[in-house]
Amino acid sequence: MALKIRLTKVGSVHQPIYRVVVAEARSRRDGAAVENVGTYSPRLKGNPAKLDLARIDYWLSKGAKATDTVNAMIKKARRTTEVQGETASSPASA
Questions:
Q1: Cα torsion at 61, 67, 72, 77 (round to 10°)?
Q2: Side-chain half-sphere of 36: how many Cα atoms within 13 Å?
Q3: What domains are defined for the chain?
Q4: Is residue 80 classed as helix, strand or coil in its secondary structure?
Q5: pLDDT in tens, 28-72
Q6: In what order do the strands lie in the sheet with 65-66?
């Protein structure tokens, strides 16, 4: 059973909203998913992707392959959590 981490569209016309899902590689784009691991709203400003990186890491360790688009989203999410972690852990200067 080959798994992919990919986007599935749930929004309407001109209002795109996507779920980041783990699904069977041979299933159709909006078909049944094994697990929902995040959302992506391209029309939002700031950080449009909300991903559960722990679950994504779990599925990647089990052999799931992320699509190119989702892979880019994962990298960006990791960078933003790194930056937020550094600012939260740095001591505040008075």
A1: -50
A2: 12
A3: 3-89 (3.30.1320.10)
A4: helix
A5: 888 889 999 999 999 988 889 999 999 999 999 999 999 999 999
A6: 49-51, 35-40, 18-24, 3-9, 65-66
